[in-house]
Amino acid sequence: MLDWFRKFRKIVFAAILLVAALLFYSYHLRYRDRTTLFEKTVLEFTAPLQKGADYFLQAVAGWWDGYLWLVSTGEENRLLKEENRRLRARLQELEEVALTNERLQRLLEFRDRMQLSALVAQVFAEDATSWFRTVIINKGSADGVEEGMPVMVAEGVVGRILRVAPHQSRVLLVTDPSSALAALVQKNRARGIIRGQGGFLTMEFTLRQKEIQVGDLIVTSGGGGVFPGGLPIGTVVRVGRPSYGLFQSVTVVPTADLFRMEEVLVLRREDK
Amino acid sequence: MRRLALLGLLILAAVLVQTWLFPRLLPVSWKPDLFLILVIYLAFFGPFFRGALFCFALGCLMDAFGGTVLGLYGLVFTVLFFTARVLIVHINIETTFPFYYMVALGTCLELILLAFFVIFFSPRGGGVWSLVTAGLFPQTGLNLLAAWALMQGNLVLRRHVGWAADLPGPSLEDSGI
Question: Which of A3, A60, A184, B93 lies deepest, with the highest CB count within 10 Å?
């Protein structure tokens, strides 16, 4: 018996590990909406590193823009260029402040317009894989963030909170393949389900007799219990009506630029 | 101990590069899968038992950084590790070419396994398939490029840096570096 085990120990080990891995995955699949202690710990411990790296990159970029490209200039222009550099750096700084101000202003205006109680958070890291679409924000359970809370920018829906650690959270973007939300066409109230496809969205289960055109705005329906109704999701870019079948295929591009986000709004639970 | 610390640093660097640097540098949402390359590297040059456990742990770490269900990548990486181990028994791993070949094969297998486990185990996973089929070629290309860069780095380090001389890798004689 022992000889048999020794002979086939690699196969036995591989089989046990594979079954254990499968069981581990199926166990967590059942509780997919909860954040595990492992995930909380990983988020909590690596976030400072990612934030630090982000800060470092900004500092280096600022230094490069503001100083390095001037090093090789001639001595006769040094004073003028030094002055110019200071002014340019100041201007860039002010432009950055103005842009940030503008973005925050838009978020605040949006929040006031929607009469929602919301939390402003900063995006500082993205998904490690190419197949799933999530980002990490700098607000967590200590700030009142909970799993399932909707996340927005002024232009439209971003996604919902997937995992929460004390000071960071992971947001599942609407473009993620596992993301689905109830939606309707703003113009004629045709209903459907918006599903993520990576870089774009599709609207499914929309009856083919409903008239949908390119350029139509898709908004949240308020069904499903996550997003309030009437929030913009995206714009229709393609409509396909097959010669048979109940539904039409609608391709939608998100109104929010999910590829380059800096600040987002987390909508609090009581506003649903 | 030194190898373990080196591996820990390598993983930390891979995490940082993948979650923070690539999204800022690359104009598209595809990014090289450094963890997959590490799994193939371990399958080629690492120990069997510890390597398998390490790949499972690496997968779980990827799950935590990728927002997927905990255990998905753990399972995928474990399957990949064993598959690669079975395949490399029949090939000469002294040269770098089989490594690149396995990275390309591993990328395809990873996508198939991901799609399988997500679609068949989750009611909401249907969209993954279209994403996977659309991204197969760019992802394979990026992974090959990253694998080549990392392998060149490995060869250069082993040849020129003292403390890295005992890092596992293909034969230095055939590398031309």
Answer: A184
